[in-house]
Design goal:
Low-confidence stretches: none
Strand order of the largest sheet: 1-11-8-7-5-6
Number of strands: 11
Helix content: 40-55%
Structural class: alpha/beta
Order of helices and strands: EHEHEHEHHHEHEHEEEEHEH
Bound molecules: guanine
Mean pLDDT: 98
Distance between the termini: 46 Å
Strand content: 15-25%
Shape: globular
Largest sheet: 6 strands, parallel
Number of helices: 10
């Protein structure tokens, strides 16, 4: 028997609907939530992601303003734009799509965004707020992973959670959120020995590596939950996650669950961004 397929579409639609209700309530108070979306250069994947974010804004009742800059934009020009967006009171959130062209320092750009408008939750101030369990923004993909788990009816408390991948924006904050939910968390990475044995002990596996076939059927315990953050292309150019979906699903069995790619975490990232735009609009109007 195959594992349950976690319904990223249904869960992300629900979160967007909740954001839409909150947007309507804010508008009734004269506040129109607004997101500035900044795209620099011609990266094809980034263009698709940014369009998905703008479409979601429209659906949810969040205004989006687009800033598309050429590939050869100088760092100073982008920093100047961010400064202007920081100072514009009717813009609540600022999203600068990554990666940026080589001549621009991502670190400088992230630091330049007003922490109260940082809907990605990439600013070190907000990362620190997350680490210390304070209220505020949660990073979109990690928060989306947690929502996928909890809204599918699984709890994290007391579970052995194995996170594969330790990137600043994905792996590490996912581990932190699972820890805050009282999970027992193991973080694995490219230098980890015995990855298979560690994963075999996991009740929850979150894979954020970015490589097909990272999680195989022989690595999972029957009844475990697998959340696949990977968004990769296989040898035939087909979109795939980190897990061998069909074989892993079979190995997990009917008590297990797995999130598909596409149709899983990717949709959640956009939904949580909508939620963060609402948080930003509230924060700046002293409603939080
Ligand atoms: N590039 C890939 N994922 C993301 C994301 O969540 N936010 C931003 N700003 N850029 C990205």
């Amino acid at each position: 028997m195959k594992a349950k397929r976690i319904d990223g579409k249904g869960i992300s639609d629900q979160i967007k609907q909740e954001a839409a209700q909150e947007s309507t309530a804010l508008q009734a108070q004269g506040i129109q939530p607004c997101l500035a979306v900044v795209l620099v250069g011609n990266d094809a994947a980034s263009q698709i992601y940014v369009n998905n974010k703008k479409k979601a804004c429209e659906k949810v009742g969040i205004l989006s303003r687009s800033y598309e800059l050429p590939e050869d934009t100088e760092e100073a020009a982008l920093l100047h734009l961010i400064d202007q967006l920081n100072r514009t009171p009717d813009i609540h959130g600022i999203l600068v799509q990554l990666p940026l062209p080589m001549q621009i320092s991502e670190e400088k750009v992230i630091l330049a965004i007003d922490a109260q408008k940082d809907v990605d939750c990439f600013h070190p101030m907000n990362v620190g707020m997350l680490q210390t369990g304070r209220k505020g923004f949660l990073p979109c993909t990690p928060a989306g992973v947690l929502e996928l788990i909890t809204r599918s009816g699984y709890t994290v408390e007391g579970k052995h959670c194995v996170v594969i991948g330790r990137s600043h924006n994905v792996g590490k904050p996912i581990a932190m959120l699972l820890l805050q939910q009282n999970g027992t968390v193991t973080i694995c990475h490219s230098k980890t020995k015995n990855l298979k044995e560690i994963c075999k002990q996991a009740d929850i596996i979150v894979s954020a590596v970015g490589k097909c076939h990272t999680v195989t059927a022989d690595m999972v315990k029957e009844g475990a939950v697998v959340i696949d953050v990977g968004m990769n292309r296989d040898d035939n150019g087909k979109l795939c996650g980190d897990a061998d979906f069909d074989a892993v699903s079979e190995a997990l069995g009917e008590q297990g669950a797995i999130s598909p790619v596409p149709g899983g975490v990717g949709l959640m990232t956009v939904a949580m961004l909508m939620h963060n735009c609402i948080v930003a609009a509230k924060l700046q109007n002293n409603l939080l």
